[in-house]
Amino acid sequence: MSDREAVLAANRAFYEAFESLDTEKMEAIWLRDPRIICIHPGWRKLSGWGPIMASWERIFDNVFEMKFELGEMEVLISGDLAIMIVEENLTQRGYDGAQRSTVLSTNVFERVGLKWYMVMHHGSPVIAPPDDEPPLQ
């Protein structure tokens, strides 16, 4: 399997763990390291294994179902680091009913031995319509 195929498989495994709402499956995706980072949409930065895994437990405890349709994806690989830019089209059902949202995520994986592990996930909500031009600064 090429590096690109392996990174795509690791990314797929992340979204499968996310949809499963299973903390153990999510734990298997992440590198167990104090330098890992996770930024959920609208949240502050979380660093380290404990806070990040606690965040997944909190998310999973408050939804009944999550389904992702992944849109455009880009993969950049350099040595043992891989960056994926992923458009997430998410439908979730929770205590407040069903909600749909689009999130643009950056997923960073690091190869340790023969396996690619997630070391960073950063999700940003997409609010502008798809054909809207970004503002000039």
Structure description:
There is one protein chain. With 137 residues, the protein is of the alpha+beta class. It has 3 helices and 6 strands. It has helices at residues 3-20, 23-29, 49-61, and strands at residues 37-39, 46-47, 63-78, 81-94, 97-112, 115-125. Strands 2-1-6-5-4-3 form a 6-stranded mixed beta sheet. Helix 1 (3-20) runs antiparallel to helix 2. The model has no long low-confidence stretch (mean pLDDT 93).
Structural class: alpha+beta
Spatial strand sequence of the major β-sheet: 2-1-6-5-4-3
Shape designation? globular
Beta-strand segment tally? 6
Euclidean distance between termini CA atoms: 43 Å
Give the overall pLDDT as a whole number: 93
So how many helices? 3
Give the radius of gyration: 15 Å
Summarize the helix and strand pattern as letters: HHEEHEEEE
Strand portion: over 45%
Low-confidence runs of at least 5 consecutive residues:
none
The biggest beta sheet is recorded as:
6 strands, mixed
Helix content: 25-40%
